[in-house]
Design goal:
The structure is a homotetramer. Chain A has 16 helices and 14 strands. Chain A is of the alpha+beta class and about 475 residues long. At the C-D interface, strand 7, strand 10, strand 11, helix 10 and helix 11 of C face strand 7, strand 10, strand 11, helix 10 and helix 11 of D.
Amino acid sequence: MALRTPEQYKAALQQMRPNVYKFGELIKDVTTHPATRRTIEGHAQIFKAGQCEKHRDRVIVFSDLIGENASRYLAIARNLDDFIAICKMKRWAFQLTGTCTGGRCVGGNAISAMWATTYDLDKKQGTDYHNRLRSWLADAQRRDITCCGALTDPKGDRTKTPSQQSDPDMNLRVVSRRPDGVVVRGAKIMIAGAAAAEEVFVLPGAAYKEGEEDWSIAFAVPRDADGLTVVEARRPSDTRDMEDGIDNPNRIGGITQGYLLFEDVFVPNNRIFLNGEVGATLQTVMNFIMPYRAAIGGCVAGQGDIKIGAAILMARANGISSKVFKDKLVQMQINNETTYGVGIAAAALGKAHPSGVWIPDALLANVNKTHVATLPYETSRLAQEIAGGIAETGCMPSSIDLESPTYGASLKKYLGAAVDADTRVRAARLVEWLTIGSGVPGCMHGGGSPDGAKLVICSRSDWEGSTELAARIAGISPPIAEPGTK
Amino acid sequence: MALRTPEQYKAALQQMRPNVYKFGELIKDVTTHPATRRTIEGHAQIFKAGQCEKHRDRVIVFSDLIGENASRYLAIARNLDDFIAICKMKRWAFQLTGTCTGGRCVGGNAISAMWATTYDLDKKQGTDYHNRLRSWLADAQRRDITCCGALTDPKGDRTKTPSQQSDPDMNLRVVSRRPDGVVVRGAKIMIAGAAAAEEVFVLPGAAYKEGEEDWSIAFAVPRDADGLTVVEARRPSDTRDMEDGIDNPNRIGGITQGYLLFEDVFVPNNRIFLNGEVGATLQTVMNFIMPYRAAIGGCVAGQGDIKIGAAILMARANGISSKVFKDKLVQMQINNETTYGVGIAAAALGKAHPSGVWIPDALLANVNKTHVATLPYETSRLAQEIAGGIAETGCMPSSIDLESPTYGASLKKYLGAAVDADTRVRAARLVEWLTIGSGVPGCMHGGGSPDGAKLVICSRSDWEGSTELAARIAGISPPIAEPGTK
Amino acid sequence: MALRTPEQYKAALQQMRPNVYKFGELIKDVTTHPATRRTIEGHAQIFKAGQCEKHRDRVIVFSDLIGENASRYLAIARNLDDFIAICKMKRWAFQLTGTCTGGRCVGGNAISAMWATTYDLDKKQGTDYHNRLRSWLADAQRRDITCCGALTDPKGDRTKTPSQQSDPDMNLRVVSRRPDGVVVRGAKIMIAGAAAAEEVFVLPGAAYKEGEEDWSIAFAVPRDADGLTVVEARRPSDTRDMEDGIDNPNRIGGITQGYLLFEDVFVPNNRIFLNGEVGATLQTVMNFIMPYRAAIGGCVAGQGDIKIGAAILMARANGISSKVFKDKLVQMQINNETTYGVGIAAAALGKAHPSGVWIPDALLANVNKTHVATLPYETSRLAQEIAGGIAETGCMPSSIDLESPTYGASLKKYLGAAVDADTRVRAARLVEWLTIGSGVPGCMHGGGSPDGAKLVICSRSDWEGSTELAARIAGISPPIAEPGTK
Amino acid sequence: MALRTPEQYKAALQQMRPNVYKFGELIKDVTTHPATRRTIEGHAQIFKAGQCEKHRDRVIVFSDLIGENASRYLAIARNLDDFIAICKMKRWAFQLTGTCTGGRCVGGNAISAMWATTYDLDKKQGTDYHNRLRSWLADAQRRDITCCGALTDPKGDRTKTPSQQSDPDMNLRVVSRRPDGVVVRGAKIMIAGAAAAEEVFVLPGAAYKEGEEDWSIAFAVPRDADGLTVVEARRPSDTRDMEDGIDNPNRIGGITQGYLLFEDVFVPNNRIFLNGEVGATLQTVMNFIMPYRAAIGGCVAGQGDIKIGAAILMARANGISSKVFKDKLVQMQINNETTYGVGIAAAALGKAHPSGVWIPDALLANVNKTHVATLPYETSRLAQEIAGGIAETGCMPSSIDLESPTYGASLKKYLGAAVDADTRVRAARLVEWLTIGSGVPGCMHGGGSPDGAKLVICSRSDWEGSTELAARIAGISPPIAEPGTK
């Protein structure tokens, strides 16, 4: 097929077995249900762009694998240019929708990780994982599917490994092995865009050790596979998505995250890309982390761009020139460019893996993760500071009240300023939505915690080398050794 | 009466004319309606404390005015000890409820401001405002009422003064003067705790100039006065207050803010404390700002204390010792103590006004406002960092889903960790509620914007004096003058 | 005598045994030697203020001990007003000299610490330390001496206690006990203002444990006691103090720090205030830390005030109005007021010790220490940013070059801007001196490290209490316990 | 010649006309004089690396211009790889010497700027500047010279342009035009590495306007050209470079900055690359700024690496494992990688100019400038925090005192800890030198001020575009216009 239209994408979702729930209700049609329609709409924007002369190059790329164009979300970044194009696409996707379209990007990232891992694994042990993945991916590109990625396990007690948990299901695992495939049980949680996805690409959630073969599993399954249930998570102000009216300020997109319950789901062999190779789990995780933590800087920057725009809208709605807030806007822009830039730098200092996938630099990618966990918070704070009291916590009566026959006219009179009430409320609600509402994507822990990133920074920094350089300059020879060592 | 019980307080609210609306609905009983009950409950905690041996001294104080004990919220701080007691009470009230009980504290602060202003005004022009206020206050103390404070006008175009607005109602004003009082029109917006209040103490929203006599008005009216309508504002996740179940994590308190529509409300003379004295509006605002911006540091610290506790609960729920997060907890505590401490310092460097009210130092009070607009954001971020992904944006299925006969048991299994799912979800929801939910009180712009505070810092700093000192040290004489001046 | 003139103070220094060295040279007269004259001059300013109607109340206070006025530096703060007066004096002393006059303030702080410690010790064990101290102090007040304080020991290997060091002298200790006193050996290092002091008040450098009686010693000795040698430390750009000309920009004050070598110094009994009471060393250190870390906020603020003035001088010298830098100046002022204010708050939340000395709050005093270790750095950075390239690192030819017959005129032509070269260079050199020159007082580690302060913050924070409050709000009962505990 | 040895480089310097002064003294031989030898030595390290198998590729590159290898400092970056190699070289040069070797890098950057400018200028107006520059550069590469860059003019009153100054010489200008060249007068100030340079590449210091043709001049001259005098600037602790002993902790390198006085210096035509083209000055400055502000992130990171090493040396010297300071070291590393990374990103998002030179992205390059003006300060503060009190301000007796026959042994005893005194003092002095001594390179204003960078950020940000995106999301159409505009 290749490069579907938004309509084709939505039709495909409608044909799937309904298995997404929210508030105890089975959602019959995710494309129209108030709880999920925004997410679908956001992802549909990307399909729309693929049909459009002006934006096509942002989202599609020629694929050697199938000899025709494919979505960048399903394509392996082969070089720096490809990778930068992905960073740009992610920034642009946030600019377009105001938030995350994680139902495609995490999956693409997971595919990249397995591209390298399966290549090395086959080289080492003569398995056939890489060819399986190539076949699956070629098919996925041709079908132009939306494939989300799923890593995070419930994990249970954080001080224990999977095999030490009182309940072995706390990390997704193989419960039985058959000639034609495996049966898995467990959950993957907080999975962005699951409702908007047609398939799920599953990776191990962490690096495992000897004896944890059953947890060392990677595969792809349809999102409506038998035994798989998705329960949508709440998020701040999520019920407003279900409302009409301007309290729900985003006309375009939105993001939801699902809990995926795998109750003995069968995965056929040709969809399994890692199966018991404990030793490859660390590499899998690292191969996932590097591109993810590099590219997420683009996401955060793109949302920051919208925060800038929303803050300016509010300033103007209040009758104030945006020039008054120049210093604050510059700081917001610096924050945006810093996460975007450090990600680009991680890419620029990366290198091609023998399998042909471009792997960003680990140190810079993880430095970026620490910025992603801090700078967007400051950008949000600045947006609230510029936008004023009614935007800070969305402190305005509801859109229902604005239409009250009794006092609605009075409210509208008082909510107007340099523009009418409707326009001003939309702008204020957008700031609220972006900074303290359902538009906050949750990227501090998404893709791993900042403390985890700091561990990688530790391990990738050459402090002993720095110490030797300093000792050389100061004429200290040999360099002073760590106390207690010789 | 003096020192009512929580039950008496609630009964009094129930006897008022219903005039509070939300979502287009007239709330018959604010004490039980899901949209307002939490706020009432939070304020009731303070009445409860007044009945309790252990906490009584926090919230009551002997009043010279009535010769018996009265609520601290209605008492004039006469000296540093009184003022510190107020700061401590505010910190404690946040610790108790997790959020703001602004229905009492802004009113008390407004009373303080007028205590000094009316005293000076009478001295200067022989009016009788101060006695009126004494009488009203003695009565308010005896009735032990909850009196909210109302300053913020809609303001319209921010580049224009009240008399320049195309609609003169954009700032609350006198529309007619009668022998027995005045009739006012306009709105006061984002008024904390209005639903929980029995009276409203109204101040001018800014300093006004010649020709703006009609906007220069201060008074107190019952919250259910004829012509006065309150429309409750939305805030992030506000509809969860209306839910049962654990997605609504605060069992104790909450805060709402109202839009007060004054549609030709009559105010009798004995409740008017400023009437056309344009020249006193600047002093009124400053007298309000100083104690408000000093004491708000205690509020923010008290909520910060709960953020610390909530983060520790989540760490432990995840099986992790809070010691692991020692550095982050220390930073949270530093943030708390900084806003609290700079407020205390403003008080300690303050002085008694001739009217007998203690006025904190303007420079330090406004420095504190800038901290209040930044440090709590970092404290929230750290709480989210400690608490992990499910708390960051409350990324868990709803409490309804947890009870689903189909998949509820499965969700509960996976949401448990070192504690059961119910406990862990409560802890995570509390972090969400405090940092990105309806517990965020909106204190960046509450009581004025940080940029406004910086203007006061400018005006109260002695930069010319610093320049002379520096010139003296460097042997530059005379000090270099500002370019363009002689 | 009481309240000496600057001339009397200098004459007293000239009569002491020369025992101060720098660059291998014995300084005959510290009041005139280029290496020490600035420090003496700075301290003399305080004596001058005591003689002056306008400033007298800043630096003197009525002493009950001697029934007449005494220097605040030698007086016990009995209440909050006294303590605030000390904070103000310290801020003012920095404003006056641009830097530290530590030769008086650390000593006064050490006296306070022992005032409380000796009182408790005598109560507990019937000793006579407190009376000894009263007698010594009354005499010191009457003589109006400059008494520096000495805590910091060389310490040797930081992972070992005094008794574990390979050389027991690494912490100052008693080497012999005699009926009439003790003989001490060791060193106290980095002692501010030693060259300007007439006596040295010595405290143990840390809390010691059983078996470390010999290190548990507190006493006062003349700075020129037999066996005591002072070697002045280097500091950045210190040799410029020895130059004439404008590269040495401070005409008024300066600070030096000395290494005090105690080579078997005899201390008579009436000057010993702690002798072997290991159990009192922790209290001694805490009693020192609390007032020191509260009041140092004033010091840092006072220097920050001069940084503001110096930055404005440079802006104007460049022809630029200081208004252009308003935002940066506000931030500098906020930094100044924060360290000052949190110190004042520590005092305001303090309480009187039974001995009559006012002890600030431990939590806030240590919070302030962390601000003192960070905010002045930002203030310096902002001063450099405003002042421009030639001030950032003092990047201008020397004053000798400015007078070169060959190219001096040319340099002066090019160094002038809105003012002549001489004036502009003085302003730039002052910024350099304050931010990266010999005027930097070293207050990050002075009085203990910020990490040490954080340990106290940990121990004084009530995190378990916060956890209980949070659990109560969330309806979690009992609160979740620390993993591994019941 | 090409690729000289360090000895050849030094010999060349010795053969130049002595015209460098410091402290009023003409320096006969810059390679041995204590005031300049460190700078020469630092630059010589680069020549040494060029001779060394291991490091050669860092500093040399094949030049198409001469068909053989040339120094990277003299080569045009033709693509991203070239540019990244320059960033790496600059980081490595700081690691090698602990500080700046600005005598080569600013010149190389200026050459790049003129490479593009002359190309465009010739295209537009048919001049021959580009060929002149090619010829000069080919010759410079063959001679393998050290060529510093000179932009900063004295500027006089900052509110006036060159033609408005009361003295027209406040910006370097042409005073007479001759058939064979021009005569220039004025000064270039704060020129890094001038003493170590053989030639000076001069650019206009700012963008000029019509009527300021005489100031619109770019050229290269020998550093010892007739009429050119260099006066070395002071910097913090600069006289220690002239000392022997360990108070001068850098055995390898150092940086000095000179004031270049042009007293009617003749420049022949073949060395003139811009002459009166006012319209090209803005482009010249921008072409300089972009690569400079991108690559300076490498410099700052390289010095930050040494700060890490020096801090670890001190921790260990104190007997403390560097692991204790892991969090602080991670933060230092994050700071280093951020300036390095954002610079790399500016390069990666850059593009090739038609002349063949790679021009980094303007927005990211200027964002980096703001990081360079802040993050290294925090890195220095952390180094001081780890290193402790004696390193914070270098608070140790001088090396002369350490050798005193009277008390030297005692000082050494007390200055030792886990290592001997000599080693510990070297480590502490290195921290001092790097953070508050003569090793601080002054990069906040070097290459322009952060406020200037913020202006570029303003102009290169697409805030109107962001506003349109936000308006589209919120359903506001058309976007709200700036007040006062239609």
